[in-house]
Amino acid sequence: MTKAEKVEFVIQTLESLYPEPPIPLNHADPYTLLVAVLLSAQCTDERVNKVTPALFDLAATPQTMAQQDVDDIRAIIRPCGLSPRKSQAISQLSKILTEEYEGRVPASFEALEALPGVGHKTASVVMAQAFGVPAFPVDTHIHRLAFRWALSTGKNVERTEQDLKRLFPREKWNALHLQIIYFGREYCPARGHNPHECPICSRIGRKSLFNDKAKAA
User: Fold this and answer.
1) Is the pLDDT of residue 214 over 60?
2) Are the C-beta atoms of residues 143 and 119 closer than 8 Å to each other?
3) % of the chain residues with pLDDT over 90
4) What is the rounded distance in angstroms from the CA atom of residue 134 to the CA atom of residue 123?
5) For 72-111, what is each residue's pLDDT tens digit?
6) Distance CA 190, CA 199 (A)
7) Is the pLDDT of residue 215 over 90?
8) What are phi and psi of 138, to 5 degrees?
9) Hey, what domains does the chain have and what are their CATH numbers?
10) Is 50 a catalytic residue?
């Protein structure tokens, strides 16, 4: 297959499997999504979804969160890991949103990335999922699959994001981000992956995948 044919095959396969991929993090609005995405760093979406109900019972708006003691926030989010840093970030960004943005989450990459604890990936998720702005957030799942499918040779997520944005149509980015994550979890995991049985790797996977599988056998 040519690279263009690979791209079309990936799009068709993922759309047939996940025609309407749901947003994995439970949220009610852009603010609660922002907090949930921040918590998901080095933590599973499943665990975040177990923690956020208690957190949002405590405070579900920037105004109310800004009034909470950081230790109270930290006690709730501890299961998500990195709780000292994340609790400080949630408290500080809530104060900034309250004081500078009238309690609203800004629909701007630049403004989001300036908030404490918010990097490019978190900003991209919020822009895509809360505001519908085309973005292609790349996490470790997407980074791994882009390499396995020979769509990127990026050594880091930044380069992989650039490669995928260049290959895939802009209007597909938001859906593809979620579709690839779901596919990676269900069919193409980091461990125990069988490229012969994978619906995409079996067609366009790197030869090294099959060589490694043969050596393991």
Assistant:
1) no
2) no
3) 89
4) 12
5) 999 999 999 999 999 999 999 999 999 999 999 999 999 9
6) 15
7) no
8) -110, 115
9) 3-20+137-216 (1.10.1670.10), 30-131 (1.10.340.30)
10) no
Whether this prediction's pTM lies above 0.85 is answered by: yes
- How many CB atoms lie under 10 A from the CB of residue 38? 26
For residue 198, give the amino acid letter. C
Neighbours of 163 (CB within 10 A): 18
In whole angstroms, give the CA distance from residue 217 to residue 209: 13
- Strand ranges inside 29-112, DSSP E: none
121 annotated active-site? yes
Find, among 163, 140, 147, the residue nearest to 195 by Cα: 147
Output the six-digit token pair for 79: 């299961």
Tokens of residue 210, six digits: 């099959």
* Residue indicated by tokens 């665990």: 47
Coil/strand/helix, residue 134: coil
Among candidate residues 6, 45, 95, 139, the one labeled active-site is 139
Rounded to the nearest 10 degrees, the angle between the axes of helix 157-167 and helix 173-186 is 120
pLDDT at 140 over 90: no
